[in-house]
């Protein structure tokens, strides 16, 4: 049987970028996958190439009723939930001088409270799983002190702390909780970050150059970390943050 054979995974923000790559890889490794996304474009074909046995559910992680209904839809379809990938997230640029209160509320509601909401709804089902795992999508911004990312960094710092606290709370229930800290990943997110300038290639090169490897991370490379942490080979791993960041966190060098 394949590595995740018979297990059921839900991936928030699975209609795009990292979440889509994670959904595809979890499916390729044998899991039944439910993609949960606020995007109206959620289609089974988007992640499974039309393969049978998967599910797409409209879900806004800032809306508790929507989250509860989405988890019920997953369990209604598959009868269980083993893996929750809390990947949905939004960005914010600027210093503390730039973001008003309502922007703080909006970003924290998605990036931090969204994880709590999803996990709260999923926990009763995860407790019944013999192989329960939660993987939260954090960021190098949680630890790197990036400029012009005050609100976003604070939100991801909270994701890191929340991951460790959840790992402690649920370890005796057999639920592992970890997070992945990507560097800058080549997703639609990055395309949106780049200003509508006439030199997007230069902007892109600058983002790539922040990472010692000198290139952007691929969504599939982050998905591989998600699949590892979600699967049985990580059975002794909980409370960790796994950097997939081209060496940005651990190395003190930058490419010339
Ligand atoms: P993306 O914009 O390509 O995909 C994000 C997905 O989340 C979209 O499909 C969007 O519809 C969904 N989403 C947004 N708000 C939602 C909500 N309220 N409820 C449900 N779904 C919602 O972005 P991405 O680059 O794939 O980022 C995914 C995650 O990875 C985010 O948590 C982000 O913070 C994190 N991350 C991204 C990068 C990067 O460089 N791309 C780096 C570090 C961390």
TrEMBL record:
Residue intervals passing through the bilayer: none
Entry keyword set: Oxidoreductase
InterPro entries reported for this sequence: NAD(P)-bd_dom_sf, Sc_DH/Rdtase_CS, SDR_fam
This protein's record includes keyword Oxidoreductase: yes
Entry-linked Gene3D superfamilies: NAD(P)-binding Rossmann-like Domain
Pfam family, one: adh_short_C2
Domain of life: Bacteria
SUPFAM superfamilies named in the record: NAD(P)-binding Rossmann-fold domains
PANTHER family: DEHYDROGENASES, SHORT CHAIN, ESTRADIOL 17-BETA-DEHYDROGENASE 8-RELATED
Family: Belongs to the short-chain dehydrogenases/reductases (SDR) family.
Protein name listed in UniProt: SDR family oxidoreductase
Protein species of origin: Luedemannella flava
Taxonomic path: Bacteria, Bacillati, Actinomycetota, Actinomycetes, Micromonosporales
């Amino acid at each position: 049987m394949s590595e995740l054979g018979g297990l059921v995974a839900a991936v928030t923000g699975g209609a795009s970028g990292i979440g889509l790559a994670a959904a595809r890889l979890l499916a390729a490794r044998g899991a039944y996958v439910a993609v949960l996304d606020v995007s109206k474009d959620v289609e089974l074909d988007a992640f499974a190439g039309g393969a049978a046995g998967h599910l797409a559910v409209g879900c806004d992680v800032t809306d508790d009723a929507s989250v509860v209904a989405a988890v019920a839809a997953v369990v209604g379809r598959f009868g269980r939930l083993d893996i929750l990938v809390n990947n949905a997230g939004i960005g914010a640029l600027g210093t503390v001088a730039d973001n008003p209160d309502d922007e703080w509320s909006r970003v924290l509601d998605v990036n931090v409270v969204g994880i709590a909401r999803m996990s709260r709804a999923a926990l009763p089902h995860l407790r019944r799983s013999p192989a329960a795992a939660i993987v939260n999508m954090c960021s190098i911004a949680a630890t790197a002190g990036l400029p012009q990312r005050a609100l976003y960094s604070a939100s991801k710092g909270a994701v890191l702390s929340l991951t460790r606290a959840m790992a402690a709370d649920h370890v005796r229930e057999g639920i592992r909780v970890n997070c992945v800290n990507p560097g800058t990943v080549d997703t639609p997110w990055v395309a949106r970050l780049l200003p509508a300038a006439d030199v997007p290639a230069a902007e892109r090169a600058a983002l790539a150059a922040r990472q010692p490897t000198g290139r952007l991370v691929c969504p599939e490379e982050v998905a591989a970390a998600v699949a590892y942490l979600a699967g049985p080979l990580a059975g002794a791993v909980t409370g960790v943050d796994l950097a997939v960041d081209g060496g940005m966190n651990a190395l003190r060098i930058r490419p010339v």
